[in-house]
């Protein structure tokens, strides 16, 4: 299959300053993948003529197709045309239909058109001009030295319309045949990225179609499988075959695919076993409960959470003994275990899970920031399981990661009792 090495360049200082997000590049990459076109580079460059020209020259040396968004407006800092002309020496001319459209726009509004608006109708001689139905500046497709350059407005609505109606069909014509790129994300818990990569080393080394890419994320480790084929059905078959090979080796760590979350899997496990869970949250302050109640039907399996941040709430509401807290501290395995057991009994749940620890920035009870205890109480078996974690990050990060660790711990515990 023919390949088109494609690059996306966004022009605009506002993107570099973080004033707006570069959603154009994200959307373009997603859409191009769906028609079998690989994007190899994303670049953002500010409104500076020399820097834009430098980026254009670099792209021209390595990509078959370069898609540029932004810099086609009427103001002095809209420099996309000027930068490409400096590189290519191509002539620029006024496109009469676009100029007529711009003039008509101002006449209809009854306002005076400033001279700089004529700039928006300027196009490269010989370019395929793309009619902008939702804005003023037209898009352009330009062939130069064996490369295809696509120029699109930076306004997302205008860019998407031009790309969908004109650019994608044009690029598919260059391919000669339709290609489909499909991806599948496999999610894992209880295994690190390095161990996962070790278990799949030979598959990764031999990868071709589909490709296998391990990725580490806050919520766990994932593998992205990406297949390419002219047929969507065949691309799906390629993904399924590789998924089965991965599952054969890592089934005990497999969580789900694509959009499936660990919260959903916990709820499904609880529903299938007719059990439920409640939480006692000190460190996490309700974050764990928030994760579970975001799942439709959570009331069937989640009894509730007691946020027991203060010591007296642990004692007076949960019923954690003063002796335990005095002897071991509130940031301890003993306190975590009592919290889990007490909330299970109070809320009449099959499992109780508790969170206590030090989010930071100060040391508490001689425990360093990031020290976290998560405990599970299995009421049916009168059994405690507790884990101690030492998490890195600022206060919010520690709380967030503690919540994720608790979800992972609970999922693996319930799963082990079912198997």
From TrEMBL:
Residues 7-174 form the MoaB/Mog domain. Pfam families: CinA, CinA_KH, MoCF_biosynth. It comes from the Bacteria. InterPro entries: CinA (IPR050101), CinA-like_C (IPR036653), CinA_C (IPR008136), CinA_KH (IPR041424), Competence-induced_CinA (IPR008135), MoaB/Mog-like_dom_sf (IPR036425), MoaB/Mog_dom (IPR001453). Belongs to the CinA family. NCBIfam families: cinA_nterm, molyb_syn, PncC_domain, PRK00549.1. This is Putative competence-damage inducible protein.
């Amino acid at each position: 299959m023919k390949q088109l090495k494609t690059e996306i360049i966004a022009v605009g200082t506002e993107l570099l300053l973080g004033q707006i997000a570069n959603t154009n590049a994200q959307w373009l990459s997603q859409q191009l993948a769906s028609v079998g076109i690989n994007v190899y580079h994303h670049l953002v460059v500010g409104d500076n003529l020399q820097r834009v020209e430098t980026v254009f020259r670099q792209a021209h040396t390595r990509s078959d197709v370069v898609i540029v968004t932004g810099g086609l407006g009427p103001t002095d800092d809209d420099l996309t045309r000027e930068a490409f002309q400096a590189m290519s020496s191509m002539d620029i001319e006024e496109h009469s239909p676009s100029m007529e459209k711009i003039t008509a726009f101002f006449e209809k509004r009854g306002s005076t058109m400033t001279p700089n608006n004529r700039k928006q109708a300027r196009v490269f001689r010989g370019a395929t001009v793309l009619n902008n139905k939702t804005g003023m500046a037209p898009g352009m497709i330009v062939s130069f030295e064996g490369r295809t350059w696509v120029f699109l407005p930076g306004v997302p609505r205008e860019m998407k319309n031009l790309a969908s109606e004109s650019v994608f069909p044009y690029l598919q014509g260059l391919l000669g045949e339709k290609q489909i790129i499909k991806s599948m994300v496999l999610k894992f818990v209880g295994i690190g990225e390095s161990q996962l990569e070790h278990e799949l080393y030979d598959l990764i080394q031999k990868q071709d179609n589909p490709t296998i890419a391990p990725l580490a994320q806050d919520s766990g480790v994932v593998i992205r499988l990406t297949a390419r084929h002219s047929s969507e059905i065949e691309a799906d078959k390629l993904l399924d075959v590789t998924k089965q090979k991965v599952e054969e080796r890592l089934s005990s760590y497999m969580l789900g695919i694509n959009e499936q979350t660990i919260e959903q899997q916990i709820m499904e496990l609880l529903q299938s076993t007719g059990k439920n869970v409640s939480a006692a949250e000190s460190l996490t302050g309700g974050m764990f409960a928030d994760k579970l109640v975001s799942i439709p039907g959570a009331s069937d399996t989640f009894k509730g959470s007691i946020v027991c941040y203060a010591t007296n709430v642990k004692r007076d509401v949960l019923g954690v003994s003063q002796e335990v807290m005095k002897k071991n501290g509130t940031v301890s395995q003993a306190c975590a275990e009592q919290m889990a057991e007490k909330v299970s009994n109070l809320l009449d749940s099959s499992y109780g899970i508790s969170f206590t620890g030090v989010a930071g920035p100060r040391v508490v009870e001689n425990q360093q920031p990031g020290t976290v205890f998560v405990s599970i109480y299995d009421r049916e078996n009168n059994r405690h399981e507790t884990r101690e974690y030492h998490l890195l990050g600022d206060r919010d990060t520690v709380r967030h990661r503690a919540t994720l660790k608790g979800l992972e711990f609970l999922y693996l515990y319930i799963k082990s009792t079912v198997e």
